[in-house]
Amino acid sequence: SLKPNKHRNYEVYLLCLSSVIHYYFHTAAVTVLVVALKFHTIFLTIIKRMKLITHNMLTSKGMKNVIEGFPLKIQAEEVRNVDIEFDREFISRMVPKLDWNALIFAAQCVGHQEDLPEILPEGYENDDDLLKKLHHILLEVEVINGCLECPETKRKFPISNGIPNMLLNEDEV
Amino acid sequence: NMAPSINKINTEAFKGLLSEHREICTLELTVVTGLEEVAAEECQEKLGVTCVTARGRVFFDIPIKLVPEVFKLRSIDNVNVVLQMVSNFSFPETRDECFAKIYKFAEKPDWKKGMLVWKNNFNYPDDPIQEVRALNDEYCKPRPDIDLKRMKLTSEIIGNLPEGILPEHLKKKQESTEDTNEEDNSSVAEMVTESNDSDRQQIHASGPKFRISCSRTGSKHIFGSSEAARQFGGAVNEIFGWPVDLSNFELEILLYIDTEFVYAAVCLTREPMFKRNLTSFGRTNLRSTICYNMIRLAAPQPGEVVIDPMCGGATIPMEGSLTYPKAFHIGGDNYGQAVKRSRDNIDFLLKKKNSMPVDVAQWDSTRLPLRSQCADVIISDLPFGKRIGSKGDNRVLYYLSLLEMARITKTDTGRAVLLTHDRNSMIMNMKKVHTLWKSGTSRTINIGGLSAVIYVLRRTALLSDPNLKSKRKGSGKVL
């Protein structure tokens, strides 16, 4: 089962403690158990995701009285980095489809503004450095827990275990 | 546009069936009926082979050393190496003569070549063919008491069998000779060891444990599939000395009889290939090979965004991210459990392979929380009988979803590949939204006996149609 974030520190302590036990008493059982649990949660958190590329498309426009509902403000409680293979062709073709301002905004929200330029420069498709940064911010930064806030109504859509819940209530449509 | 029946195949076309072509073998790949052309395209693209298609399968010649490449294909379910094909078997008039002919048929195929392919595939340590004996008997002693036990009441050949041998449960049926078009299900011969009065059978039993799986279709046959399997298997046992084992077999030999078209093949897949993506949660998911074929029909290009607005367990986005990693795949479903299942499914695959450009969200497909024109491709297995809000039926769900899909999909270049069992709801709504979605091809497929249709739609140039507003009252009903 998935552990809430605040218990993560306890896992680390338990891991250290069991390593000590293992060292001194040659009892592997506890260590193995804790290591397994730890990796289990790591694996699960790897796929607990909302990538910023997805955020670039999400809106709250389905709500009544909302005009644009974009971009949603990310309030991230937990963010994680993962490794995704860099594909130059993918990134350079994705770029024109992105809402650049929304991307800058999202990057700021999660504290990953890095040095993304305010305006998309000409000839970006030849700028490998920029493409790699874009790759990282779009695909490798994942919001695990937090919420997405509608810019107009301030309604918060929860993100838990990396999945944003965009379902609206009866009175919101 | 159904694929031709297997009877139409020209058996002379395959070099792999001839012993003189030592380096080439003929393979049979099974595919969901209706998607043969798509599979043939994948074979052409990835293997460079030209396929001959028949219902539910494709055949081609391939160098034996390239056979391992075949297992990388995503559109096909099973792989078999064909040993022999006969298009005009000429079944004789009496049962005993039929048995004799089937028995002797086991001597005809190029077993050496077929078993070499089998041995390589499964890394069998020795040469499976250690001895080759001639067949001295006419045929195996028939055991209809055993072999006809599992014949179905719906079998079309019951009327052809002599009454004396029919088991009880089929005797009543013989009185009413209804013609049904049911296929006699493929059956495995129960080759009970004490039958065949064969101490011969057990003396030199060595080599791979095998069983025969026979599939028989045709209303004129005077024998059942189990009976054919018994004859063929008995001969194989006699010739090679391999032991029969119906449950723990290492070698599965297929005998396929369609009217007068008969072929024998050796199975190279222990499990169908669509099982590779499944987790324990996979029971209700769409087969990954069907997912692949649908995605292939949409042909996602590098940098495109592919969305499944009713993704269930996200099998389509998952397969997409594995096979078309240059596109970005997003799945969403309104049902929390399904979304959780998606996560688990993706997790399972991530443990094997790190990089999967896929994301999952929870949303209402009739109110997609996505910017207009952000998607290039929609691929979805549409639900049957789902409810929206407090009331509703499929027709309304499809209508509203089609509108939303149109809104988020790029005009002109955008396309949708949609699978549904509810043909009526789909056709009715495709007419309604024709200003937004242009109807392309439709393919009827057969999934485990149920027929469904895959529609390919193309986005028109029209951004939106004011006549198609999805105005709803609070209850979610469409006005």
Percentage of β-strand residues of chain A: 5-15%
User: Would you report the number of β strands of chain B?
Assistant: 15
User: pLDDT average of chain A, as an integer?
Assistant: 82
Sketch the topology of chain A as an H/E string, one letter per element.
HHHEHHHEEE
Largest sheet of chain A: 4 strands, antiparallel
Strand numbers in spatial order across the main sheet of chain B: 2-3-1-4-8-7-6-5
- Helix run count of chain B: 13
Low-pLDDT regions of chain B: 176-187, 189-203, 386-392, 473-479
Query: What is the count of helical runs of chain A?
Result: 6
Number of strands of chain A: 4
Radius of gyration of chain A: 20 Å
- Please indicate the percent range of residues of chain B in DSSP E strands (runs of 2 or more): 15-25%
Q: Largest protein interface?
A: A-B, 41 and 37 residues
Structural class of chain B: alpha/beta
Plain-language structure description:
The complex is a heterodimer of chains A (173) and B (479). Chain A has helices at 8-25, 28-47, 52-55, 88-94, 100-109, 128-140, and strands spanning 73-81, 141-149, 156-160, 163-164. Chain A has 173 residues and is α+β, with helices and mostly antiparallel strands. Chain A has a four-stranded antiparallel beta sheet with strand order 1-2-3-4. In chain A, a hairpin with a 2-residue loop joins β3 and β4 (163-164). In chain A, α1 (8-25) runs antiparallel to α2. The radius of gyration of chain A is 20 Å and the shape is flat. Chain A starts with 7 loop residues before the first helix and ends in a 9-residue tail after the last strand. Chain B is an alpha/beta fold and 479 residues long. Chain B has an eight-stranded mixed beta sheet with strand order 2-3-1-4-8-7-6-5, with helices on one face. In chain B, α12 crosses α13 (423-432). The two termini of chain B are 38 Å apart. The chains are: A alpha+beta (173), B alpha/beta (479). The interface between A and B is large, with 41 and 37 residues. Chain A: This is Multifunctional methyltransferase subunit TRM112-like protein.
